[in-house]
């Protein structure tokens, strides 16, 4: 029977308040849950070792995060524009945009290395330069061809 800590009155079992002074009675500790038998140990395993993980495994990091920098839009866009800057004439505009976005992507990686995309930005810059030079030579060649065909008439 619980005894009140204020007035020392004995109270009936299961009471939450003292029948005399209405003070909250100290709760008795909850009974321990019944023991669950452990499974037999696996051959070659010590009794204290578990056959499975005690805690759920942590989620693995997404492998795509390092492969495709989807959080660094300028670097990713620079990469694709640089690759497609080899298209004649139209590639000249893609090359310039690839250069600008490549440098923006590099700046974002420098400010926040967790973004990833440094390689994509560099590839975008390099292929943008190559594609841009290729297109400049194509335009110069077209202009020279048009001028030389006008002189021959």
- What is Rg? 38 Å
Order of helices and strands: HHHH
Number of strands: 0
Quaternary arrangement of the chains shown? single chain
SS-derived structural category: mainly alpha
Total helices: the number is 4
| Share of helical residues | 40-55%
Sheet-strand content, in percent, reads: under 5%
Q: In this structure, how is the largest beta sheet organized?
A: none
N- to C-terminal distance? 121 Å
Mean pLDDT: 80
- Given as residue ranges, the uncertain stretches (5+ residues, pLDDT < 50) are none
* Overall 3D shape: rod-shaped
Descriptive report:
It is built from 4 helices and no strands. The chain is mainly α. Among the domains are: 27 residues; 80 residues.
Task: Chart the SSEs and their pairings.
Elements: H1 64-67, H2 73-84, H3 90-111, H4 118-151
Helix pairs in contact: 2-3, 2-4, 3-4
What's the gist of this structure?
The protein is mainly α and 153 residues long.
Keywords:
153 residues; mainly alpha
């Amino acid at each position: 029977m619980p005894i009140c800590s204020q007035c020392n009155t004995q109270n009936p079992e299961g009471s939450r308040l003292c029948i005399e002074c209405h003070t909250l009675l100290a709760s008795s500790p909850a009974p321990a849950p019944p023991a669950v038998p452990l499974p037999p140990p696996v051959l070659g395993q010590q009794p204290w070792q578990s056959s499975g993980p005690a805690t759920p495994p942590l989620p693995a990091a997404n492998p795509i995060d390092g492969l495709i920098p989807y959080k660094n839009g300028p670097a990713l866009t620079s990469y694709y524009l640089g690759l497609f800057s080899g298209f004649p004439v139209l590639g000249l505009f893609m090359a310039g945009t690839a250069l600008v976005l490549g440098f923006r992507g590099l700046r974002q990686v420098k400010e926040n290395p967790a973004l990833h995309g440094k390689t994509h930005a560099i590839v975008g810059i390099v292929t943008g330069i190559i594609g841009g030079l290729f297109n400049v030579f194509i335009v110069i060649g077209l202009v020279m061809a048009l001028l030389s065909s006008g002189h021959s008439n």
